[in-house]
């Protein structure tokens, strides 16, 4: 299932082979830096460029003995390069390679997610504009409140994902830092100039100060931002799940030919994509907690964060990539059912007009609490008797003593509820253009 929705390149980033390839990129960038600083002779640098390589199986074989993946990796590369390999990893500690490579990998994964966010924003904007003016019931606490439009519902989600996108841009910028500063970050066996040269080659920024590792608040921002994105996905899905309930049925997930909803009940068409995405969002949030726990390491570094990151880096980025693509497909194929929106709108007998009548009475000179009690009494009777609120108001002598027919016509005008819809649209979508 994941392959259907996940872009292939995200999976490629997190293969074991690719991890070691990026480690090699880092080692070669460091060698290039040393060469530019006249530490590695030209002949040795030429040999390193030509021969630096590895075989994955050989690394895994060596790791069985060394119990240390970086040493196994270096040994496999040295076997390919020969004597010139003495310059590879010169002055470095393992975390110089691993943390810098992580920055490369997380940045590459992050750019894919950024493109996914842009596609989803495009879909949400299309849906918002397509359904602008389409009245539907707004609900608070799950109860009928006042009318809104389906376009505004989608515009709200679009505005949220604009914020998610900006947070993600910030998180990407903050993760794009490497370090080649040695065992405790003091450059005792290295040079700040080397670090800057190597990281420039890799397209990374220099962490102003590091210990043996990049500090994990950068990672915490990255993974908590993924958790926020997952929370936004879940928020859309919870809305769609409610709207697909049999009693509501204002939208429906696409249902393909030959698809089955239940092994027992042939009639079932369930919101499976929205439910799956709701569940996955919980995993992404759990991983964010683990990233937060990784911030507090002993002194200049311990290894408690490492095992966590081996799991959450591929898992969270792959899941969010999958979730964004699956949500985009869900929305693009969502069936909108306007006739049910219209039916549900009046399913509470027009009680949502209560505030309009209340305000009209206040404007007519009644004290607000007196007007409230008057309108509430009519509303409760209508709810109990399942009768039209508008008809009851027009028949109520206490109310019509203050409001004539023309004023009541204004109070019961459905179009009134969307009189500022375009203003909201202008805010949401013009803000996006400014952010671009």
Descriptive terms for the model:
19 helices, single chain, elongated, disordered N terminus, two-stranded antiparallel ribbon, Ribonucleotide Reductase Protein R1, domain 1, 436 residues, Fumarase C, Chain A, domain 2
Question: Would you give an account of this structure?
Answer:
There is one protein chain. With 436 residues, this protein is mainly alpha-helical. Among the domains are: 94-178 and 211-254 and 269-342, Fumarase C, Chain A, domain 2, CATH 1.20.200.10; 349-435, Orthogonal Bundle (Ribonucleotide Reductase Protein R1, domain 1). The protein is built from 19 helices and 6 strands. Helix 3 crosses helix 7, helix 3 (16-36) packs across helix 9 and helix 7 (94-130) runs parallel beside helix 12. The two termini are 34 Å apart.
Task: Point out poorly predicted stretches.
Answer: 1-5
The DSSP helix count reads: 19
Strand content: under 5%
Q: Give, in spatial order, the strands making up the sheet with the most strands.
A: 1-2
Can you summarize the main beta sheet? 2 strands, antiparallel
User: How does the helix and strand content classify structurally?
Assistant: mainly alpha
Mean pLDDT: 94
Instruction: Indicate the overall shape.
Output: elongated
Number of strands: 6
Report a brief summary of the structure.
The chain has helices at residues 2-5, 8-13, 16-36, 42-51, 56-66, 69-81, 94-130, 150-175, 192-202, 217-243, 272-293, 304-332, 338-345, 354-363, 368-385, 389-395, 397-400, 405-411, 421-435, and strands at 135-140, 143-149, 177-178, 205-206, 251-252, 335-336.
């Amino acid at each position: 299932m994941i392959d259907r929705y996940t872009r292939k390149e995200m999976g490629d980033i997190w293969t074991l082979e690719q991890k070691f390839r990026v480690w090699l990129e880092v080692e070669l960038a460091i060698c290039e830096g040393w060469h530019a600083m006249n530490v590695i002779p030209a002949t040795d640098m030429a040999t390193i460029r030509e021969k630096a390589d590895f075989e994955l199986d050989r690394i895994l074989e060596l790791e069985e003995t060394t119990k240390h993946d970086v040493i196994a990796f270096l040994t496999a590369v040295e076997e390919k390069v020969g004597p010139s390999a003495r310059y590879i990893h010169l002055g470095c500690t393992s975390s110089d390679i691993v943390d810098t490579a992580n920055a490369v990998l997380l940045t590459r994964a992050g750019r894919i997610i950024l493109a996914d966010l842009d596609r989803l924003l495009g879909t949400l904007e299309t849906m918002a504009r397509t359904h602008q003016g389409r009245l539907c019931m707004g609900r608070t606490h799950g109860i009928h409140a006042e009318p809104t439009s389906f376009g505004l519902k989608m515009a709200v989600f679009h505005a949220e994902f604009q914020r998610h996108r900006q947070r993600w841009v910030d998180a990407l910028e903050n993760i794009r830092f490497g370090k080649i500063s040695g065992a405790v970050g003091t450059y005792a066996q290295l040079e700040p100039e080397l670090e800057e040269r190597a990281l420039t080659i890799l397209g990374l920024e220099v962490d102003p100060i590091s210990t043996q590792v990049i500090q994990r608040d950068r990672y915490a921002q990255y993974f908590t931002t993924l958790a926020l994105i997952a929370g936004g996905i879940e928020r859309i899905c919870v809305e769609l799940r409610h709207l697909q309930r049999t009693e509501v049925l204002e939208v429906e997930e696409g249902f393909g030919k030959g698809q089955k909803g239940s092994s027992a009940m042939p009639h079932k068409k369930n919101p499976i994509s929205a439910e799956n995405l709701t569940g996955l969002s919980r995993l992404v949030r759990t991983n964010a907690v683990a990233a937060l726990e990784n911030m507090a390491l002993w002194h200049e570094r311990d290894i408690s964060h490492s095992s966590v990151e081996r799991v959450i880096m591929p898992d969270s980025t792959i899941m969010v990539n999958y979730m964004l693509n699956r949500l985009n497909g869900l929305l693009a194929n969502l069936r909108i059912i306007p006739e049910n929106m219209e039916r549900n709108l009046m399913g509470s007998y027009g009680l949502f007009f209560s505030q309009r009548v209340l305000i009209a009475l206040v404007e007519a000179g009644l004290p607000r609490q007196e007007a409230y009690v008057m309108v509430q009494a009519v509303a409760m009777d209508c709810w109990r008797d399942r009768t039209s609120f508008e008809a009851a108001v027009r028949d109520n002598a206490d109310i019509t003593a203050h409001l004539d027919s023309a004023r009541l016509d204004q109070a019961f005008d459905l179009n009134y509820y969307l009189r500022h819809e375009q203003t909201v649209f202008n805010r949401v979508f013009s803000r996006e253009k400014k952010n671009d």
